[in-house]
């Protein structure tokens, strides 16, 4: 498995398995399937309500903990030093592990500075191997990088062929932050799985559109965590290291970038109010 080296020297698999919106009742089976396929990087979050299922799968997999890379995220409602600190211990308990490989702030709302202090403390105590953020736009990422003792190792943001986050990636590279994608398939929006350009490129290599997308992101040094509940899709998504897209094909996919989100914008007051309302419900 190809890996990236984070700014603190920790190695992270460039391809992982995400469990967003997977029902806790089904999640354990899915993670066990993913591990059996060969995935060693599993991405969950407090707000997904399936950390326990991930923990059960880790325990039952028979794979040494040292061979796995586990990510979770602190939700908005757990922001602030004290709440974040308590939530970290709760996540460790649910995941049935002595340490978390990567811990992220899920959204840049509420007292995320306090949460980051708790994360930094857990990092120094060896409870977390790397800390970072998710959904931080360049302005907030720059602010955090300048005023925290530990520079975020990762920023996980919406990234797919229609929203490639070129400016955000430039900023991340400048500050030594690893770019990670959520929704690499845009959750199927804008007909991504029938796109004629992606389809024709896939036909050249005998690969699916999904494999072309993952390969494109990987060649752009972006960590990807595709989600599926079907083992055959897990296998398909995993088999993306036996071909390389040409410069011509990379350029063709680059041209698909529309430069805007297909989901939400933190610069949209209504979107922010909606996200915060979700946090207050939990």
TrEMBL record:
Residues 21-257 form the NADP-dependent oxidoreductase domain. Substrate binds at residue 106. The keyword Oxidoreductase applies. Its EC number is 1.1.1.274. The active site is at 48 (proton donor). InterPro entries: AKR, Aldo/ket_reductase_CS, NAD(P)_OxRdtase_dom_sf, NADP_OxRdtase_dom. GO terms for molecular function: 2,5-didehydrogluconate reductase activity. The record marks 73 as: Lowers pKa of active site Tyr. The keyword RNA-binding does not apply. Coiled coil: none annotated. It is an enzyme of class 1 (oxidoreductase). PROSITE patterns: ALDOKETO_REDUCTASE_1 (PS00798), ALDOKETO_REDUCTASE_2 (PS00062), ALDOKETO_REDUCTASE_3 (PS00063). CDD domains: AKR_AKR5F1. SUPFAM superfamilies: NAD(P)-linked oxidoreductase (SSF51430). It comes from the Bacteria. Keywords: NADP, Oxidoreductase. Belongs to the aldo/keto reductase family. This is 2,5-diketo-D-gluconate reductase. It comes from Defluviitoga tunisiensis.
